[in-house]
Amino acid sequence: MRHSVMIGALLGGLVLAGSASAQDAMSPEMKQLFVQNCRQDLATYCSGVQPGNGAVKGCIRDNFRSFSQPCKSALRQMMAQRSQQQ
Predict the structure, then answer these.
(1) CA distances from 75 to 1, 2, 25, 39 (A)
(2) DSSP 8-state code for residue 51
(3) What distance in Å separates the CA atoms of residue 16 and residue 53, rounded to the nearest whole number?
(4) By the number of CB atoms within 10 A of the CB, which of 14, 22, 24, 52 ranks highest?
(5) Which Pfam family name is an example for this entry (predicted)?
(6) Is there a contact between 49 and 56 (Cβ–Cβ < 8 Å)?
(7) 38, 9, 52, 29: CA torsion to nearest 10
(8) What is the pLDDT of residues 8-19, one digit of tens each?
């Protein structure tokens, strides 16, 4: 259960690192894809990160090369969806 709470907080931090409109624009499917594919990577590399002030985004940026291919793919899809919404 602790991992679910942490992943939720990290996802919330990532989404909020953008704008309110980015939060609204992220589809439930995209959120699910991110959680499924990045859960372990976030637990491994970003578990100590407190959401806020871009900390989650920074952790993802700093550790992106170490993330699994499925997580990298999900993050790229999220970025593409976000840029289409802007």
Answers:
(1) 23, 23, 15, 12
(2) S
(3) 9
(4) 14
(5) Cys_rich_FGFR
(6) yes
(7) 60
(8) 555 655 654 444
pLDDT of amino acid 69: 97
Nearest to 47 by CA among 30, 60, 31, 33: 60
Question: CA-CA distance, 17 to 66, in Å (whole number)?
Answer: 21
Q: Residue 41 corresponds to which amino acid?
A: D
- Kindly give the residue spans of alpha helices, DSSP state H, lying in the chain: 2-17, 20-25, 28-45, 55-63, 69-85
The total number of residues shown for the chain amounts to 86
Q: Say which amino acid occupies 35.
A: V
